[in-house]
Amino acid sequence: MGDQKRRGNIMNQIDVSHTIIAKSDQLNALDLPPSETIVKIIDVRVLSDKDQPVHLHLEGHDGRPYKPCLSMRRILVNAWGKYAEKWIGQSMALYCDQGVTWAGKNVGGIRIARLTGIERPVSAPIALNRSTREVYTVDPLIIEETNWQTVADDFIVHINESANDAEFNDVKAEIRKVWNSIPAEIADKIKAAIDAKKLPSVIEE
User: Fold this and answer.
1) Helix, strand or coil for residue 10?
2) Treating both helix axes as pointing N-terminal to C-terminal, what angle do 165-178 and 148-161 enclose, rounded to 10 degrees?
3) pLDDT-based confidence at residue 5 (cuts at 50, 70, 90)
4) What is the DSSP track for 15-76?
5) Sign (positive/negative) of CA torsion 167, 169, 170, 175?
6) What is the largest distance, in Å, between two alpha-carbon atoms of the chain?
7) Measured between alpha carbons, how far is residue 2 from residues 5, 13, 51, 64, 203 in Å?
8) How far apart are CA 64 and CA 84, in angstroms?
């Protein structure tokens, strides 16, 4: 068979982001961008670890838990209470704060920006260093539930109505923006619609 025309299958994208993740058994500050990353807690474990006793297991992230520092644990207790089982199902907006220091050096650290389950900002004192403290505040995080079936139906309509490469590629560009959030069974339907689409320049030879 000769060279095949690319069909624009979004699953053929080569994602290299996993190659820059630090090898570790936990979520690291360097794994997060300066902008916010929304994560959902699916389990909480408390271990006999003096420095990082609380392990927050997250949806995704290859099973690597977020181990909040003392300051962020204070925020979580102030926001959600001291019983960690009530934290399960809640979500956080995390970011990498490049200004976090350790032993006098800027090493970066994970900070919480916003939390679900609160109606107003929540604050707690945190230590910037041994002699300096400040009040740290997190804001409410509002997450609207997405009806992915409706979103998929809309995508499929636009896929089927695409009359040329430009329109087809525009639809796929919109799909890529949310692809990683779409449930697998619904993503399969979108994938099938893309594979079934026949335009003159995307038909296999």
Assistant:
1) helix
2) 170
3) very low
4) --GGGGS--SSS--GGGS-SS-EEEEEEEEEE-S-SS--EEEEESSGGGPPB---HHHHHHH
5) positive
6) 71
7) 9, 21, 59, 43, 13
8) 18
DSSP assignment letter at 3 = P
| Maximum mean pLDDT: which of 7-21, 50-64, 96-110, 111-125 | 111-125
Which residue is it, tokens 């809640």? 90
Mean pLDDT of 27-36: 79
- Residue whose token pair is 């997450």: 143
What angle in degrees, to the nearest 10, is found between the helix axes of 148-161 and 184-196? 0
- 3-class secondary-structure state, position 155: helix
Position of tokens 């998929």? 152
Judging by beta carbons within 10 Å of its beta carbon (0-12, 13-18, 19+), is residue 37 exposed, middle or buried? middle
Decide: pTM greater than 0.85.
Answer: no
